[in-house]
Input
Amino acid sequence: MSVKGLLLVGHGSRLQYNKELITTTAEMMKEHGGDYLIRSCFLEYSNPTVAEGLDLMRSEDLEILIVVPLFLAKGIHILRDIPKILGLEAGKKRGTFTLADGRVIPLVYAEPIGIDPLLAELMLKNAANALTLPEDA
Amino acid sequence: MSVKGLLLVGHGSRLQYNKELITTTAEMMKEHGGDYLIRSCFLEYSNPTVAEGLDLMRSEDLEILIVVPLFLAKGIHILRDIPKILGLEAGKKRGTFTLADGRVIPLVYAEPIGIDPLLAELMLKNAANALTLPEDA
Output
């Protein structure tokens, strides 16, 4: 049965933290997220690359591919670099994706985190946690 | 009466989106966040700079300053660049901050967004929204 593919794209980093964030978030999404087939990949420094992530998705029996950038806000990566790899026309959010068996399915490109009350909530939580740091922190 | 100061630090960008994200999140935090005096500043490209943000905070009647980085994960900016500007010892989360009137108050350095179920929730929301994009998106 066909499923919806969700490819989470992170920036990647020379340090391990960005990759940990992306892959753990992908795991949490699997727990909460219902019926997506979820994989993660990285624009720079970390593996798999976006091209490799797309190739992994190509062999799955997908009905649609949703590409979700785990970035804070629009910038050059979101507006230019990732769309280019996805083969999207400039400014477009919808394209197509060719599976390994030759079927062409829709591809949609989601927004980065952006302005959201959940983000404000997260920042207030981190601020409150900082107030409880031990004296020698 | 003394208040807790909260300085939100964003990356900044040559484009407007990062600044919009940081300043709007700061506004949302003011609405939801109770008793903090909140300002935002930027590490690169956007204004005010972190040094300018600290100077603005210096003239307030603060009892403590909480510096909250609106970054996704630890990286060089979080581990090295921002602590350096804050005058924190390497690896330390607690320091001091000298107000314009000479009083020395505690400074605490909060964590970036990091691994959090709220982030997974946000990504699933953005994925679901992408499925409802108009045909010509």
Notes: Chain B has one domain: 3-131. Residues 17-32 of chain B form the longest helix (16 residues).
